[in-house]
Design goal:
This protein is mostly helical. It folds into two domains: about 110 residues, no CATH class; about 200 residues, Growth Hormone, Chain: A (Up-down Bundle), CATH 1.20.1250. It contains 17 helices and no strands. The two termini are about 35 Å apart.
Length: about 325
Amino acid sequence: MLVACLTGIALFYGGMSLTMGFLTLLPLFWLSGLISHVWHPTSMGLLGNLFPDRRGFALGFHGTGANIGQTLAPLAAGYILLTTSWRGTFFINMVPLLVAALLIAIFLSPFNLNTPQSKGTKASSINFFQPLLTNPLLGATALIAGAATVGHHGIIAFLPILLVTKHGASPEWVGICLSLYSASAIIPETFVGHVSDRIPRKLVLLFGLVVGGVSMLTIPSLAAGPFVLIPLISIGIFLRSLRPVIFAHALDVAPPHLKGSTVGLLFTTNQCFSGVGPLIAGILSDIYSVDVALWFFGGLTLSILPLFAFLPKFTQKEGEGTTAAIESESSAQTL
C-alpha cells in the first residue's frame, strides 16, 4: 500500500501535467489527494506497531518530516517555476515520489499491522468498525483531533485574508507569516511526541490546546504588526505539534489489531471538521468580520476541553502494567 500510494500520486501528477483544461485537471487533482490519504493509516499504523513504547516520538519524527516538506516544497516549486511551466513542475515532482516508492519497495521488509496476539481477535470480529465506533475514549480523542485540525487549516485559509483585507499586508509579509508558522512545528513535533512518552499524554494535550486556543483568540488584535508572529509561532509549537500525541493516544486506547483503521478514523474525523469548519468561519466573516473567523477557531479549540474529563489520566501503553488499563476501563464505564 505504501509503494502503491507514492506511485499513484506520481502518476496522477504526471497526468495533471498533460491535461488540456480545468475540467480534466480537477478530477486528477482530487484523485491525487484521495490516494495520498492511503499513506497515513498504513505508515502511522506501522510506526505505532514498531515502537509501542515510543509512539509519541516515532509519530513526532514522522510529523517533523512532513513539516520540513511543507516548508521546503513551496520554495523548491518557486525556483522550478523560474525555469519551466507549472506542467513541468508537476512532471518534475514525479521524480522524488517514484524514487521514494522504489526505496521502500527495496529496503522495507513486508509487514503486517496485526500483532501475533491479536490475529485471533481479528478473525472473530465480523464488523471491525464496531470496536472503534463503540469506544468512548477513542471517540473523545477523535473529536479533540478534529477540533485541533480545523484550527490549523483555518489559520492557513483566513490569516492571509485578515492580513491583506484589513491591514493591507504585502504578499511578502503574508508569505513570511505562513512560512514561520509552518516551520515553527518542525522540531517541536518530535520533542512534544517524546515528552508524551514520558509523562501522561492527557497533560500534554490539555496544555497544548489551551495555549493554542488562547493564541488564536489573540491573533486579530495583533495582526496589525509584527507581534502577530508571537501567537502564530505559539500555535505551531504547542498546537500543531500535538498531532503525534493525539495519534499515539488513539493507538493506546484502540484495539491492538486495528491500528490502521484507528488512524484512518482520526483522519476521517479531521477531514470532516476541516470541511465544515472553514465554511462556518467564512459565513461568520461575511456577516460580521474576518476577526470572528479566528475567534471561532480559538473558541472551538477551547470548547473541547470538557472532553478531557472523560479521558483517563494515564492510558495503557503496550508493555506497561495494569494500573493504566484499570483507570481507562473505569473511565469508559463512567462515560
